[in-house]
Amino acid sequence: MSTVNVYYNRITEIMEEVFSKEGEAMEKAAAVLADANKEKRSVFAFGCNHAGLITLELFYRTGGMVTVNPVRVPGMMLEVSPITMSSEMERLTDYGQVIFDSLPAEKGDAIIIHSVSGRNAVTIDMAKAAKEKGVTVIVVTNMNTATSVSSRHPSGKKLYDFADILIDNHGDLGDAAIELEGFAQKIASTSTVVGAAILNAVIARTCELLWEQGIQPPVFMSGNIDGGDAYNKAVIAQHQENIFYM
Question: How far apart are CA 216 and CA 226, in angstroms?
């Protein structure tokens, strides 16, 4: 069987596992985000490097929530050279606290934090700081990996220790999923595909909950269809007090 089909089959298996086992956590996450929007609270999303791709997936995207604020900071978005610096930077103790302190986050807000291993200091310090301020922490992580590695934080804790809501992406240890006969290293990661599916589903449910309560969901229309620019300008203006990326 071609690795194309092997990868498809593995992604399908993981997706089925996630959506059968993480439904309750995803429902809780959607309820938190719906309440935040209803109560005019703010929503943030963060991840280091490739984990941060999920933040970008949720941000300024057709059908996505206008009120998701991406946390984009130096060294955390694969923009540094040499790229190996990014791996060192996400291990810096206290940088996550510095990042969080720069946010206009308040008690009652919510933050989504994505990390496969959940072992590095930046995301742990971010989650810790958010929790201490009364911000609801929604964590997406890979528990197969997170429970198999040691923490790189002085506390010895991992990201999932600070989760108010924990969503497991059910990926393989180390994220890569496909084996080649005779080759020791697995290939083809799954966390971006699965993480995007998880959080797009959560956002969809968030919007459904708002609509059921008679509240128009704050979502973007494609700017490449007629009327999109005007629609987006209006919805941004309506929610500008909870938007910090403009």
Answer: 20
